[in-house]
Structure prediction request, 209 residues.
Amino acid sequence: MRNTLKTAALVLALAAPASPAEELTPDALVKTISADVLAAIRQDKDIQAGNPKKIASLVEAKILPHFDFAHTTRIAMGANWRRASPEQREQLVREFRTLLVRTYSSALASFRDQVLEFKPLRAQPGDMQVTVRSEVRQSGTQAVSIDYDMEKTASGWKVYDVKISGASLAATYRDTFAEEVRNHGIEGLIDSLSNKNRHNDARPASINT
Prediction:
């Protein structure tokens, strides 16, 4: 699961959608911000060197505002989402977001020479949910298919899940979350995520976290 998460995070980091004010199609949004983020990485030697503060700033500015973390958390929680109180849901989204920030930052630190190729968008006018399909190519390795699940919200298009060769990023957490809830309840899962985030904050960002 770790390798899948690394790949997913890198793709998300390179392809988060741009401002909804641009009124672009979902695939155009992905392509636009992809070029923007890649340019930022290539122009900043500190980011290339793995500077955690600069990487975190890039993630916060270019990526996080354009994700529906509540939707992503609902997918990861599965049936247990309905058992959580409003306060617990808020805590789960906050802790899961923090965990994914770490993953995205690590992915950016690992960027080298990956290339994104996008497929034609298959969507009808008025669709509220679409999938943007692409492939990640790197010299010497087999291309990996990437599907971005996006939805139209009141604040524009948002990414809520990414599938790597058909495997959902959000769903990869489902078994782990379900086991934690079975053993320790929803509060136990919140505590587990909080402890992991505090542990991660205590050490430099690494692709292996």
In short: The longest helix spans residues 174-201. Residues 16-22, 205-209 have pLDDT under 50 and may be disordered.
